[in-house]
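Key result, reporting period 2: structure in, sequence out.
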């Protein structure tokens, strides 16, 4: 039998895989959470510019949602050492901010968007992710998104969904669409 305390524990949710829908799913959780007056903090790693659609959309959802973009833009030129260090610095700031937010006890839901990608690129260490998870109060729900989630994180999570690419317009050379991709 599952103990009552166990049932009340916040979930660790991971959306990973190579198919589209990971960030979208996290935003869906966000909408649902606001419907229950939960306070939500979203920290987005890696990408420097949050896509405009959700930025404005989240604003319209009101004051319950706080959004921080901590990336330094797309990590493209990884062979450039200086660039990598800059990206790493931005990611470190993101981890620091996430720790503060998680420890603040001011939210019911914290979303760390693309954290898996930051780990995969070597911008955030496994130890840092462990620290973030340990900082979590019992009742806090947490969503971590991004492809290539670590096996140990999948093992540790309560809910894991792997998005699988079946078809994507990009395969036909169709670029990102307003309202669908950004
Ligand atoms: P979304 O933000 O649409 O939910 P995602 O979070 O699952 O997508 P990411 O890996 O974060 O996907 O990729 C970000 C961008 O790449 C999005 O604009 C998305 O539309 C696009 N994308 C996602 N999956 C694919 C795919 N399988 N092929 C091509 N482009 C993709
Ligand atoms: Mg995403």
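The corresponding designed sequence is given below.
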């Amino acid at each position: 039998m599952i103990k009552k305390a166990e049932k009340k524990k916040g979930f660790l949710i991971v959306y990973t895989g190579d198919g589209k829908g990971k960030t979208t799913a996290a935003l869906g959780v966000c909408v649902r959470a606001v419907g229950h007056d939960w306070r939500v903090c979203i920290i987005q790693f890696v990408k420097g510019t949050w896509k405009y659609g959700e930025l404005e959309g989240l604003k319209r959802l009101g004051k319950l949602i706080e959004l921080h973009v901590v990336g330094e833009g797309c990590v493209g030129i990884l062979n450039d050492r200086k660039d990598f260090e800059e990206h790493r610095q931005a990611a470190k700031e993101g981890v620091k901010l996430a720790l503060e937010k998680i420890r603040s006890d001011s939210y019911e839901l914290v979303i760390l968007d693309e954290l898996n990608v930051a780990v995969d690129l070597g911008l955030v260490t496994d130890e840092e992710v462990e620290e973030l998870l340990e900082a979590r109060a019992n009742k806090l729900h947490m969503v971590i998104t991004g492809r290539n989630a670590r096996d140990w994180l999948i093992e540790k999570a309560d809910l894991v969904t792997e998005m699988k690419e079946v078809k994507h317009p990009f395969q036909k050379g169709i670029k990102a669409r307003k309202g669908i991709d950004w």
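Residues 53 and 178 are 8 Å apart (CA to CA). The first strand starts at residue 12 and ends at 17. This case is discussed further under Risks and Mitigation.
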